[in-house]
């Protein structure tokens, strides 16, 4: 067990440190497709350090929810990330696919509350939109993941390694990629770079945050992105077994970055969708996942 | 000749005094003095014949002849007829029957006259304040002559007046005046049901600079610099409008070289605005690729401006009587424009073939034709809704009378049509620039303006990238400005934006707002 705990802690540290880099690479790629030079790929680290060194400003109207939410989010995504066996396939100390899904829901629940709490118009608006999107995304995510569970016969993420490496998996992959776009707040669902308050979803809930707490929330968002990409890699792009840990990590990093570049590219060629078109997008994702489940049960 | 009979009809009223006037621009011009209580009658007579309200100024003439006066100015686009009505108002009881019930496009103008001059339009459907905010004392009217422009006005407390929207499930979203992005201040209050906008009310005029007051008693040569600085993105248009008003007042014609130069400058200004807006509209839908390509094209145009006139925003070129200097490097600029036109064509092709862009823009933020006509919308926003009105053609100024161009018009009036309108207008602008470059000959660039007759009025108007910029002036003694009234395109179009909102959803507001691309500085003059 000791080894496992150490490897879990190591994996958490790896994810925490890696997340800003992946975000930086995506930002850089986006800038290049837009004929801009863009910030350096390390900029996200500097941003986080900058925020963490600043004291937060907290509204007197708020309670412990506002104070706790940044840590709950960071913790939930970290825990979810540690369930994915990045290099150690023997199974992890706790959790499976269902825990993974609901750790995300926990973070979202707190973020929604924190958006509502200061009583600003934008926070409430962002929270309501986030919840609307969540009700659409969650079923698709569960459906997509359970299609794979049917193949592997287990909800344990260790057993699911590479479970999507088959024709039916390609369908789940498309569905889960749409989920990833929605969950990471990217175009066409949300625009992470906007300054237009009225169009914001995720950013609107963060508007009242400042300083260290904002830094944690930004870090949590990057972590969420990395964890989702790592999950996709783990499920659909299996690692070769028996390679040293360092090589496995390098490979993971490369694959995650490749997927991130795909995100950056779609973000550059698409405009944001009208809010009430999202159900159609998610219905498309659900259709792919459903087909995956069906083709599993037929074959 | 229905238009001639219009003047005859005005003449037939026994208590109205009609004077033919050379100090006003337009092929024909007339000045009509009517008693204040006959203002709505005169206005509805004119609008009934197809004339529209260009501008409306109130003047504190008490130091001169002891009374107030209001001057609504109408234009009839069919024959370039300009008619200025003058109504004298008693200083003891400064009221007059409001024009707004018969000419809805006067609504903001009259509220401004009430705020700034304390002349009350009786029967105005919306008696709330407009230009002055609740913290301004109600009995202080800054455009009155006895108000000292340097005075510090003690602020009072007051609540903003909004018409409440009430009902189960209705909530209010206050936005601004400080925004998350670096943009100018404006407070918007949405009443929404879920994401559906029921109503939008805006409080603007946060950075009113008192430009009109500042221009008073300045020499007209000095005041053109003030005019140029009303707005960064319409510098040329404002300066030309002002210069034209002065030239009409002095009764001078500017040399051909100067009018062609002005047309070139005006078109370059339109181009960089339109190209910038074409790209920037996509910022409202997060289409970053298009935004940055548009920004690159706009930057290329600004650099061309620098080569052409020595200033990226073309300032310092226009003076009353002509232009200060000729344009430079014209062949090089025209060659550059050819390249830019094809690059713009590529960009707009990408945009108009992008399904995700079309999906967001089509049917979004529709401005109905009737609303555009009633509220006096101008510029590409009005033409996208089917208002066939362009002052370059209807009241030819600069060299536009000798240049060939079309006035594109769309019908549906949604965001996509406002985008297409700008694309079409860019094409015409490239054509105008090529013609003007060919026809521009060497010659005198400016004529001297003789002494201005005091206490006479005139109006100058240009079609800017956003629509008509109308400058009305009254001269004072010694070549000074006695009263200066600027009606900018944004002043006409701001009241129109809230009309387009109901039926759309809250997150579409930035896109709709960007499709009008209105200017705060043009309001806060």
Task: Give me the secondary-structure topology.
The complex is a heterodimer of chains A (299) and B (525).
Chain A: H1 2-33, H2 43-52, H3 64-83, H4 97-116, H5 121-152, H6 167-183, H7 202-206, H8 211-236, H9 245-269, H10 278-298
Chain B: H1 2-12, E1 17-20, E2 28-33, H2 39-48, E3 52-60, H3 62-65, E4 68-76, E5 81-89, E6 95-97, H4 107-117, E7 120-122, E8 170-175, E9 187-193, E10 196-203, H5 211-215, H6 220-228, H7 235-250, H8 256-280, H9 288-309, E11 318-319, E12 322-323, H10 330-352, H11 355-361, H12 369-374, H13 379-384, H14 391-394, H15 415-439, E13 457-464, E14 467-475, E15 481-487, H16 489-493, H17 509-516
Parallel strand pairs in B: 2-5, 6-7
Antiparallel strand pairs in B: 1-2, 3-4, 4-5, 8-9, 9-10, 11-12, 13-14, 14-15
Could you explain the architecture of this structure?
- The complex is a heterodimer of chains A (299) and B (525).
- Chain A has 299 residues and is mostly helical.
- In chain A, 70% of the residues lie in helices and 0% in strands.
- Chain A has one domain.
- Chain A has helices at 2-33, 43-52, 64-83, 97-116, 121-152, 167-183, 202-206, 211-236, 245-269, 278-298.
- Chain A starts with a helix and ends with a helix.
- Chain B folds into 2 domains: 2-122, Beta Polymerase, domain 2 (2-Layer Sandwich), CATH 3.30.460.80; 213-492 and 505-511, Orthogonal Bundle (Cytochrome-c3 Hydrogenase, chain B), CATH 1.10.645.10.
- Helices cover 38% and strands 18% of the residues of chain B.
- In chain B, strands 1-2-5-4-3 form a 5-stranded mixed sheet. A 3-stranded antiparallel sheet of chain B has the order 8-9-10, with no helix packed on it.
- In chain B, helix 8 packs antiparallel against helix 15.
- The longest helix of chain B is centred in the middle third of the chain and has 25 residues, at 256-280.
């Amino acid at each position: 067990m000791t080894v496992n705990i150490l490897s879990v802690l190591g994996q958490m540290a790896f994810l925490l440190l890696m997340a800003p880099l992946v975000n930086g690479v995506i930002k850089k790629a986006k800038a290049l497709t837009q004929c801009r030079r863009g910030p350096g790929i390390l900029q996200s680290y500097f941003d986080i350090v900058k925020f963490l060194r600043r004291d937060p400003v907290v509204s007197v109207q708020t309670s412990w929810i506002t104070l706790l939410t940044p840590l709950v989010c960071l913790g939930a995504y970290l825990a979810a990330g540690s369930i994915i066996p990045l290099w150690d396939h023997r199974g992890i100390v706790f959790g499976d696919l269902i825990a993974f899904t609901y750790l995300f829901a926990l973070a979202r629940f707190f973020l929604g509350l924190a958006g509502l709490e200061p009583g600003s118009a934008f926070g409430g608006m962002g929270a309501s939109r986030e919840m609307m999107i969540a009700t659409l995304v969650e079923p698709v995510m569960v459906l997509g993941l359970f299609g794979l569970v049917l193949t592997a016969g287990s909800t344990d993420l260790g057993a699911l390694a590479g479970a999507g490496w088959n024709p039916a998996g390609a369908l789940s992959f498309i569905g889960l990629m749409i989920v990833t776009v929605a969950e990471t707040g990217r175009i066409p669902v949300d625009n992470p770079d906007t300054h237009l308050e009225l169009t914001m979803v995720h950013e609107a809930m963060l508007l009242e945050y400042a300083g260290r707490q904002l830094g944690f929330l930004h870090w949590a968002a990057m972590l969420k992105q990395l964890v989702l990409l790592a999950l996709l890699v783990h499920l659909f792009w299996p690692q070769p077994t028996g390679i040293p840990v360092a090589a496995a990590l390098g490979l993971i990093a490369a694959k995650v970055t490749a997927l991130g570049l795909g995100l950056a590219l779609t973000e550059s060629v698409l405009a944001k969708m009208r809010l009430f078109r999202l159900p159609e997008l998610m219905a498309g994702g659900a259709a792919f996942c459903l087909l995956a489940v069906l083709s599993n049960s037929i074959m | 000749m229905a238009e001639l009979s219009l003047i005859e009809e005005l003449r037939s009223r026994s208590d109205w005094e009609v004077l033919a006037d050379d100090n006003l621009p337009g092929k024909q011009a007339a000045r009509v003095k009517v008693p204040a209580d006959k203002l709505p009658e005169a206005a509805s007579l004119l609008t009934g014949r197809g004339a529209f309200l260009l501008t409306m100024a109130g003047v504190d003439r008490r130091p001169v002849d002891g009374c107030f006066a209001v001057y609504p100015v109408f234009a009839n686009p069919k024959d370039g007829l300009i008619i200025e009505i003058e109504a004298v108002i008693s200083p003891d009881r400064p009221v007059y029957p409001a024009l707004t019930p018969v000419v809805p496009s006067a609504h903001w103008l009259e509220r401004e006259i009430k705020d700034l001059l304390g002349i009350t339009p009786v029967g105005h459907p919306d008696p709330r304040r407009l230009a002055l905010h609740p913290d301004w004392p109600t009995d202080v009217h800054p455009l009155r002559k006895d108000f000292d422009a340097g005075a510090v006005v003690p602020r009072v407390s007051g609540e903003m007046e909004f018409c409440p929207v009430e009902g189960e499930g209705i909530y209010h979203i206050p936005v601004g005046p400080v925004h998350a992005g670096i943009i100018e201040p404006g407070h918007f209050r949405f009443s929404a049901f879920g994401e559906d906008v029921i109503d939008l009310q805006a409080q603007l005029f946060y950075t009113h600079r008192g430009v009109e007051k500042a221009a008073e008693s300045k020499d007209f040569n000095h005041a053109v610099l003030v005019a140029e600085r009303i707005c960064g993105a319409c510098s040329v248009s404002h300066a030309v409008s002002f210069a034209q008003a002065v030239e009409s007042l002095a009764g001078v014609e500017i040399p051909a070289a100067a009018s062609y130069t002005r047309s070139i400058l005006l078109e370059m200004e339109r181009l960089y605005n339109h190209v910038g807006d074409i790209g920037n509209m996509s910022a409202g839908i997060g289409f970053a690729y298009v935004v940055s390509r548009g920004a690159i094209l706009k930057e290329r145009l600004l650099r061309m401006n620098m080569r052409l006139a020595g200033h990226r925003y073309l300032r310092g070129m226009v003076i009353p009587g002509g232009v200060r200097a000729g344009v430079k490097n014209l062949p090089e600029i025209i060659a550059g424009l050819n390249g830019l036109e094809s690059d713009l064509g590529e960009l707009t092709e990408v945009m108009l073939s992008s399904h995700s862009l079309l999906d967001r823009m089509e049917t979004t933020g529709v401005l109905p034709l009737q609303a555009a006509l009633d509220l006096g919308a101008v510029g590409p926003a009005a033409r996208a809704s089917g208002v066939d009105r362009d002052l370059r053609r209807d009241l030819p100024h600069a060299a536009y009378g000798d240049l060939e161009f079309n006035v594109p018009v769309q019908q549906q009036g949604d965001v996509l049509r406002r985008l297409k309108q700008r694309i079409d207008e860019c094409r015409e602008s490239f054509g105008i620039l090529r013609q003007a470059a060919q026809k521009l000959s060497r010659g005198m660039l400016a004529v001297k303006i003789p002494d201005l007759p005091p206490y006479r009025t005139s109006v100058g108007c240009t079609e800017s990238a956003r629509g008509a910029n109308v400058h009305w002036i009254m001269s004072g003694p010694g070549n000074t400005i006695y009263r200066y009234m600027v009606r900018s395109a944004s002043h006409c179009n701001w009241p129109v934006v809230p009309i387009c909102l109901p039926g759309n959803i809250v997150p579409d507001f930035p896109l709709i707002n960007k499709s009008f691309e209105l200017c705060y500085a043009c309001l806060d003059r």
